[in-house]
Design goal:
309 residues, 11 helices, 4 strands
Amino acid sequence: MDILLQQIINGLVLGSMYALVALGYTMVYGIIGLINFAHGDVLMVGALTSWSIIVTAKESMPGVPGWVLLVVAILISMVVCSVLNFTIEKLAYRPLRNSPRLAPLITAIGMSLLLQTFAMMIWKPNPKSYPSVLSSEPFEFGGAVISVTQVFILAATAVTLAALMYLVNRTKLGRAMRATAENPRVAGLMGIKPDVVISATFVIGACLAALAGVMWAANYGTVQHSMGFMPGLKAFTAAVFGGIGNLGGAVVGGLALGLIEGIGAGYLGALTGGFLGSQYTDIFAFIVLILVLTVRPSGLLGERVADRA
C-alpha cells in the first residue's frame, strides 16, 4: 500500500507537468492543425533561463528567500519563452500556414534542432545542477513522502489549469480562439483577427511550457540543452492519449500517463527486485501511444474536428 500511494503521488506530479506541456500542443493543433515539435525545446529554454536567473541571483543577492527567486525565475522564463514562441510562429510557421501539412511539420522538427543547438552554444552542453530554492524537508503521510517542491508543482498546476480553462471558456480571447479553431475565415468575417489569436495561442503555450520546464528542473535537479526532447515527446503522447485538440483531454491524458508511468515503474521495480525500475519508465508512454492509436485513434476524450471550408 505504501508503494502504491508513493507511486500515485509521483505519478500525479509527473502527470501535472505532462499536462501543462500537452495543453500547449493541443491548443496549437486545435487552432491551426500543427504539431509543434519544437514545444519541448521551449520547455528546455524556460528551464535553462530560470537556472541562469537563480544562480545569478544567489551569487549577487544571497539573502533573498528561495520562493521569491523561484517565482521571479518563473515569470522571467515565461517572458523569454513567450517572445521565443511568438518569433517562431511569425517567422517559421506563419509563412507555411497554407502549405501542405508536411512542410510545417518538417519546419517544426528543424526548429527543435535549431533551439537545441543555440541552447548548447549559450549554456554549454554539460548538464548543470539546478539550485534547490525550496525547503528539502518532506511531508509524510500514510507511509508516503512528498517534497515541498512536489506540493508546489501540484498546486501551481491546479491553479494554472483552472485559469486556462476560465480564459478559454469565459473570456473574449477564449471565444475568439474557439471561433478561429472552428473556421478561421468565418471568424475573420466576424471581426476576429486570426493571426492575433494564433500568436496569442503560441504565447500562452510558451508560458505553460516555461512553467513546466522550471518545475521539471526543480523536481529532478538538473538542466541541459537536450532535456526538452523526452518531456515534449511524452506530452505529445499525453495529448494524443487524451484526444488532441481537446483541452480536457490533454489534462486527463497527462495525468493518466504520469500515473501509468509512476505505478508501472514502481510495481515493475518491486516485482523484479529492482532489476526493472524507474530507468524503464519510458516504455510505458510509448506502449500507451501504440495502444491508443490502434484501439481509439481519437483518444479518450477526442472530439470531432469540424471540416473547414
